[in-house]
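Trying the structure run again after the queue cleared.
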Amino acid sequence: MAGLAAQVPAAGATPAKLRDQGEAALRPLMAAGPVRQTMGDDRPRGAAPATPLPVARSAVLHLRRDDLAALPETVPEIREVLPNRVLRVPPVVEVRNLPATVEDNKSSSWGVLAINALAVWGAHGVRGAGTKVAVLDTGVDDTHPDLLGKVPDWAEFDENGQQVSGSQPHDSDRHGTHVAGTVAGGDASGQWIGVAPEAEIAAGLVLEGGSGTDAQVLAGINWAVGTGADVVSMSLGGLTLGPDIPSTYTAAIVTCLRAGIPVVTAIGNEGEQTSGSPGNDLFAFAIGATDHRDLPAGFSGGRTQVIQESAFIPPDALPLPYSKPDVSAPGVAVVSAVPGGQWAAFNGTSMATPHVSGAVALLLSATSIRSQLQGAKRAFLIQDLLAGSVEELGESGQDHRYGFGRIDVLRAIGFAREGGF
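Done. Tokens:
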């Protein structure tokens, strides 16, 4: 994948305008001889055609070694060439024997109660209506009784970032349905499982059977922006052991933020002092996991990262250390939907992430943030409200286990309304 260091003004940036600017930035690359050849019948045997990804200011390329080596000279705007890595759903564990305190929550999943989503429904009379959450995952079973009629947008992408023609909604695993259920599931089981049960889901299948590529995920982000999503939710990642992170997702995340769309991502399930990409990107809103006792899950990742160079940060501010995750949410013994009209309890930062994505939907439906703010101001206010209203459980300020703390969406809405929204 080749990425261009194109800058986009933050002011007045609509998703359509940002896509147009991304397409304009990619034209020199797409017009280059070796790239143009991949679009014709004489492309290298077995090579897929180039796939432009305007939101990410990148393109997926299959080129001969010599052509790839010469490309930066032909297109000097190219900042870096990155491999198309394989990503996976963070390892999750199904919980067979629920703790007694979890089973005692009969009206809703314990996480919906813990982040005060139930209180928001009662206090403000909103459940996420009029909002859309893009869930990029293994797909979704849109026939599940908790998700019926809630998935108006669907797309599937192959390993080269190409949209699969004729694909119909389905879950290639169980993970995506579980995540979508925590965002917007109803009470078909007799227990409310979704944080924002009246929100809509834009479901992108980017992890076939639980694994996929950077190109698939970036293509999913590119598509999600065009669906009118209010937030992108990604319970996925590739393990990163060192403090340096790949910049594969930075441009795409920054574009989403400039369009007013927070990108909510799992930090990873490999434990303390580890993290996963894209969750460890500076601009991602990274989520750790807590249990029903408000303790950090043993598997939940978090560490200090370092940016050595960046197209988005002034050189005099580098190197830049920063901490992840940003916040935490319920991620242990979380009951949600699985394909075939069933329900199951999973552990994982994958389960914590949709609690936060659903909280964004509730926050937007209970306030006037969308009508009053556009672009990056909207996205950063949403993140600041959620991070600034947490239940602080660890060290003072941000730490590697809780981030700033476990989210409380009722308090976030209260702060927003106090601020005139």
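Residues 3-9 have pLDDT under 50 and may be disordered. Worth checking whether this holds up in the mutant runs.
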